[in-house]
Known about the structure:
It is a single chain. By secondary structure, the chain is an alpha/beta fold. The chain folds into two domains: 215 residues, Rossmann fold, CATH 3.40.50; 188 residues, Glycogen Phosphorylase B (Rossmann fold), CATH 3.40.50. 46% of the residues lie in helices and 14% in strands. The longest helix is centred in the N-terminal third of the chain and has 27 residues. The model has no long low-confidence stretch (mean pLDDT 92).
Amino acid sequence: MSPTQRPAPKATPLFAAYGLATRVLAPVAFRKVAAKLRAYGLPETRVGERKGQASQPRPNGRLIWFHAASVGESLSILTLINRLGEMDATLEFLITSGTPTSAELIEKRMPPRCRHQFPPLDHPTYVRRFLHHWKPDLAVLVESELWPNLIVKARASGCPLVLLNARLSAKSVANWQKRRDTAAFLLAQFSQFITQNQKTADNLRSIGAPADRIRPGSNLKALAAPPQVDTDLLAQVQSDIGTRPIWIASSTHDGEEEHVIAAHKRLLATYPDLCLLLIPRHPERGDRVEQMLQDANLTSARRSRDARATEKTQVYLADTIGETGTWYALSPLVFLGGSLREIGGHNPFEPAHHGCAVATGPGTFNFSETYADMIANGAAVEITDAPTLAAQINTWLRDGATLSAARTAARTFISHQSDLLDQTADLLLSQLNS
Length: 434
């Protein structure tokens, strides 16, 4: 019997138990997420979206619904939506994402014929209410947003489902392999899987995804537009720093700033006028990072307080959101955090779009194939600690030819990835029209 002739997996007792549990727990979860949305200053009409209560009308015509987890995933699909809109001017789009920050950034960059809502919590009633209002013609879940009630009820409504940019951690794979019948049931609801890499394709097959529906692709974040540059801010900071050399440590976490600070102090011995632009991954850690700089006897200026760099500023602390593109335009020497600890790494496509040379730690399992390709092609270099980080930044500062080669490699890498945009759009349109 061929794979396409096999009977579809049936709902399991575990899925039924999950459905019962969500009926009990979702109202409690709603109170927590509602409190966060209200604290952010959102009106009640938007808070109600987490119960599937739409705050906007459904547009006429065919609607493609994209669901993403948070900021990075949400922004990564905007270029794809733009391309789909260019290919078919009759299409309408809905984006759902769970955080107020992602909503704010999406609405600033919203493509034509697009709107944003918060997704319903995975309660059968909330999901049913959401689907009844929006009636999507195609649902595209981005990365690893696998909510069982949402998946099953969306497919039962007649809506094709695609898992785009599919990514599964080793822990998730191990957990699903213990519950393979339930995994197979949920994955059978999807008509297409477009994975980040071959490893994810293999992982999906290992937990029961139909092999004939899996299409290895590229990381969707490579297709996103470069982070925006605030030209006025860029000119101001360039004027403040002047001709001083500068390097960037971006998306750093607790346990990484210590290495960055130690590397900067080593570099200052050779380049006494060197400036470090330090971008914590979580801006709310600004106070903590500022204290670390003080403890290290480094002078700093803090962006969130509108402080400006001077000739004496050794570290410019950019503890803000949404300005990373401006910083990458300021300097092509970038250490990308989330990698000196086992965090998984952060998006290397953003600095590569700006032609930046990237230094990374070894803990990049979320982008393992991406970093492997970048390192193999000279667009990135792996470091392990403060001394190796300092040595790499020193190489790029003193050797213009080496830095230029790394920057060219980064741009070439991005251009190859971007060729897949039309291919991804065509795959989605084929599902919409099937």
